[in-house]
């Protein structure tokens, strides 16, 4: 069941929740009030801590979940939100794939904590996971941060009880539609040309490669990506094992597909998940 346009005088009652992340996708949402006023008019925000002081004291139909899950408390909060929300959206790369915070999952937990905290024994952190590891996700808004066109498409679809357009194809399609020169083919062994566009889901209009920067895969894997071929190409172009692991784990390393790419060189069975979720 999805949230409908009739939830509240034609507006969808919406709550925004933040878990482990930089809050950049909520910042993007604040900008959308200027950029997409007609779309934001479709929503009635009953809880949006970054925009209003109001506490959560009324029901909601649509939950926008920003950030990954990194504590046992997060899991319980998330399950409670799922019970309440008719529609739950993974809002940004951190919620969809673990995002930048999940880089720590590829290192030893204690080594990461000792680098940041004077007393790691006080920290109760588990591996950083995407929200769909614990609850059903109805829709994904990918990217770091989310994209305004996709946001507009999704909110209009939810408000009119229609299915949103899902892009199954890679960033390369959008890149070539913009007549870009392929930086992956252009240069050998240069970090800026280590482009994940062939295996990354489209929807950003190839913003990085259009500015001569490699795609870092912030939107996560496309449908059925050929990961072994991507790894083989990177190896053939002279990139090191460490380079390849880092590229696959910067934004969506907790996705099955990109973790396969990251492990390909080292042959690890799994990232370092030292503390299990409750
Ligand atoms: S996806 Fe990127 S911008 Fe959004 S909360 Fe995560 S780190 Fe921040
Ligand atoms: S630059 Fe990257 S996204 Fe563009 S065509 Fe080449 S590999 Fe694909
Ligand atoms: S080109 Fe790649 S890294 Fe850049 S915004 Fe698009 S998906 Fe993200």
CATH H-level superfamily title of the largest domain: NADH:ubiquinone oxidoreductase-like, 20kDa subunit
> What is the H-and-E element order?
EHHEEHEHHEHHHHHH
What's the level 1 CATH class of the largest domain?
Alpha Beta
Tally of distinct domains: 2
Which outline best applies?
A: globular
CATH topology of the largest domain: Rossmann fold
What's the gyration radius in Å? 19 Å
The fraction of residues in strands falls at 5-15%
Overall pLDDT metric = 91
Please identify, by name, the CATH architecture of the largest domain. 3-Layer(aba) Sandwich
In this structure, how is the largest beta sheet organized? 5 strands, parallel
Bound ions, cofactors and other small molecules, one mention each: iron/sulfur cluster
**What's the arrangement of strands in the largest beta sheet?**
2-1-3-4-5
Cα distance, first to last residue? 28 Å
DSSP helical segment count: 11
Flag low-confidence runs: 273-278
Total number of β-strand segments?
A: 5
Overall SS class = alpha/beta
- Fraction of residues in helix: 25-40%
Mind explaining what this structure looks like?
The protein is an alpha/beta fold and 278 residues long. It has eleven helices and five strands; from the N terminus they run E-H-H-E-E-H-E-H-H-E-H-H-H-H-H-H. Strand 3, helix 3 and strand 4 form a beta-alpha-beta unit. The chain is globular, with a radius of gyration of 19 Å. The two termini are 28 Å apart. The protein binds iron/sulfur cluster (3 copies). The site of one iron/sulfur cluster has 14 residues, from helix 1 and helix 4.
């Amino acid at each position: 069941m999805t949230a409908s346009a009739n939830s509240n005088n034609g507006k969808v009652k919406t709550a925004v929740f933040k878990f482990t992340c930089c809050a950049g996708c909520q910042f993007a949402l604040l900008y959308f009030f200027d950029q997409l006023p007609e779309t934001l008019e479709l929503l009635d925000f009953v809880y949006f801590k970054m925009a209003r002081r109001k506490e959560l004291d009324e029901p909601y139909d649509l939950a926008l979940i920003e950030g990954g899950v990194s504590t046992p408390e997060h899991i319980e909060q998330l399950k409670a939100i799922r019970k309440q929300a008719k529609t739950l959206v993974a809002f940004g790369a951190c919620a969809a794939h673990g995002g930048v915070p999940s880089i720590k999952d590829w290192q030893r937990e204690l080594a990461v904590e000792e680098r940041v905290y004077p007393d790691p024994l006080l920290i109760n952190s588990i591996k950083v996971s995407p929200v769909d590891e614990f609850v059903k996700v109805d829709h994904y808004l990918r990217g770091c941060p989310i994209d305004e066109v996709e946001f507009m498409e999704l909110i209009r679809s939810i408000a009119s009880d229609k299915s949103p357009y899902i892009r199954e194809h890679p960033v390369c399609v959008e890149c070539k539609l913009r007549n870009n020169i392929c930086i992956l083919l252009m240069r050998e062994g240069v970090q800026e040309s280590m482009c994940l566009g062939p295996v990354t889901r489209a929807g950003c209009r190839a913003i990085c490669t259009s500015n001569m920067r490699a795609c870092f895969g912030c939107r996560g894997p496309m449908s059925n990506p050929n990961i072994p071929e991507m790894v083989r190409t990177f190896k053939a172009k002279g990139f090191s094992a460490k380079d390849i692991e880092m590229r696959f784990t910067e934004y969506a390393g907790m996705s099955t597909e990109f973790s396969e790419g990251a492990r390909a060189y080292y042959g690890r069975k799994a990232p370092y998940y030292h503390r299990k979720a409750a």
